[in-house]
Automatic annotation (TrEMBL):
One of its GO terms (molecular function) is phenylacetyl-CoA 1,2-epoxidase activity. This is Ring-1,2-phenylacetyl-CoA epoxidase subunit PaaA. NCBIfam families: PA_CoA_Oxy1. It is an enzyme of class 1 (oxidoreductase). It holds the Pfam family PaaA_PaaC. One of its GO terms (biological process) is phenylacetate catabolic process. InterPro entries: Aromatic_CoA_ox/epox, Ferritin-like, Ferritin-like_SF, PaaA, PaaA_PaaC. The lineage of its organism: Bacteria, Bacillati, Actinomycetota, Actinomycetes, Micrococcales. Keywords: Oxidoreductase.
Length: 320
């Protein structure tokens, strides 16, 4: 793999030219390579937000572990929530290669200065929500994340390969929960439909604002961090959902949804962005609860961090 010498040796403009060349030729940037500050900052922000989302995202589903309807469902849900913890850890590790510490990222999350995906600020009201989250939220995550496997920053791309494999299992288990409910009693079918009605629009909003309101998107695409625009990915997601909704027998809560033969794509009804802006502004249904739980978990885990640090110091002493 080609590497870029430090700007001290060759001057910043030469390093920049080599960086541009690597990006243009679809080569990957490794942590040791020179990179523009803005590229580094963008990645730190995106990767840490992504890691925080995985960690906060454990909460809505953890809410149902004790109430899962069978031992099998409980075991599957626990495994899924553990996978999300793992995703957070891979991503914190990948972000650390950019020079930020995990402690600093955690501090930002605890202090409320870092963002995470707003989808996790919605409550999980019924067991069917476990199905709708897997099908819709993990489904949207896959659409977003599969192209990230080819992200120009190599550690991020490598982390995403494993994450995407697990996300596709998550999506299938969600689909299967909904399918089981849809084959059940009228009440169970109603519960599944209600969950889809509540999670559908927030899952479309996971792709971010429309392209014309997403000024940083073009720059991220130029750097090959992002490969497709928000609207392209949202479109692709809806295209994937429609046949799956038919197979499930659920309806998608968009009366204006229709196939546009000319564009060979689905026409999506208007999205109520004001709702998303409220959630982003911290006024979503569960923002305060999610943050409080995260802070408590951090405090409750202090003894584990202290014990691990003491053990590591002891081992280092013994090895010296
Ligand atoms: Fe995940
Ligand atoms: Fe997942």
């Amino acid at each position: 793999m080609t590497t870029i010498d430090t700007p001290v040796e060759h001057g910043e403009s030469e390093a920049q030219a080599r960086f541009d060349e690597l990006i243009a030729s679809d080569a990957r940037i490794e942590p040791r390579d020179w990179m523009p500050d803005a590229y580094r900052r963008t990645l730190v922000r995106q990767m840490s937000q992504h890691a925080h989302s995985e960690i906060i995202g454990m909460q809505p589903e953890a809410n149902w572990i004790t109430r899962a309807p069978s031992l099998k469902r409980k075991a599957i849900l626990m495994a899924k929530v553990q996978d999300e913890a793992g995703h957070g850890l891979y991503l914190y590790s990948a972000a650390q290669t950019l020079g930020i510490t995990r402690d600093a990222m955690t501090e930002q999350l605890i202090a409320g200065t870092a963002k995470y995906s707003s989808i996790f600020n919605y409550p999980t009201l019924s067991w069917a929500d476990m199905g709708a989250i897997g099908w819709l939220v993990d489904g949207a995550a896959i659409c977003n994340q599969v192209p990230l496997c080819r992200c120009s920053y190599a550690p991020y791309g490598r982390a995403m390969v494993r994450i995407c494999k697990e996300e596709s299992f998550h999506q299938r288990q969600g689909f299967e929960i909904l399918l089981t409910l849809m084959r059940g009693t009228p009440e169970q079918r109603q519960m599944a439909q209600d969950a889809v009605d509540r999670w559908y629009w927030p899952s479309l909003m996971m792709f971010g604002p429309p392209d014309e309101e997403s000024p940083n998107s073009a720059r991220s695409m130029g750097w090959k961090i992002k490969r497709f625009s928000n609207d392209e990915l949202r479109q692709r997601f809806v295209g994937m959902l429609v046949p799956q909704a038919e197979a499930l027998g659920v309806s998608l809560p968009d009366p204006q949804l229709r196939w546009d033969g000319e564009r060979q794509a689905y026409e999506i009804g208007p999205i109520d962005w004001s709702e998303l802006h409220e959630v982003i502004a911290g006024r979503g249904p569960c923002n305060a609860q999610r943050m409080q739980r995260r802070r408590e978990a951090h405090e409750d885990g202090a003894w584990v961090r202290e014990a691990a640090a003491a053990y590591a110091a002891k081992r280092a002493e013994a090895a010296a």
